[in-house]
Each structure stands twice: as C-alpha cells, then as structure tokens.
Write a structure and sequence with these properties.
three-stranded antiparallel β-sheet, 35% strand
C-alpha cells in the first residue's frame, strides 16, 4: 500500500511539473534583442592565455578585441621563469 501511495505522489509531482512547463511555454516572454541605438560604442571581448614550456618557464598574456570592428584594442604578453 505504501509503494502505491509513493508512486501516486511521484506521478502527481511529475504531471504537475510537466503542466507548469507547458503553461510557461504558452505564456513565454519575448526574445531579448540587442540595443542598436548605441552602435558607436565598442563591444569588447578579452581573452587570456598561458602556456608552459619544458624549460621551466611559462608564457602568459591577454588581448582585447573590439567585436564591432574586429580590431585588436590592446594586448600584452610576458615570460615567467621558475628559479631553483
């Protein structure tokens, strides 16, 4: 009897979640759109990188790209060595 009650409760929870998912899909909000009023403002992406070589040193750096024009705005790289 307890197992049947457990299955009924789990089934009702599952049906409730499916029903809520369906209702959310019916009353969904509009898709977000990008702001096109300020196209002169640059949209930037930064990327950092690092690599290690066998000679107990590693290289690291970053670069910043303006995603509107595709130009590299800033970049920098360094070499770090491990001292014994």
């Amino acid at each position: 009897m307890k197992s049947i009650l457990f299955y009924k409760c789990m089934l009702s929870v599952f049906v409730t979640l499916l029903l809520l998912n369906f209702i959310q899909g019916v009353f969904s909000s509009k898709t977000a759109m990008a702001d096109t009023l300020h196209e002169t403002i640059g949209k930037y992406q930064i990327s950092a990188w690092s690599s290690q070589s066998v000679s107990r040193s590693h290289h690291s750096g970053y670069y910043v790209i303006d995603t509107t024009t595709g130009k590299v705005v800033d970049s920098h790289s360094e070499v770090h060595s491990v001292k014994d």
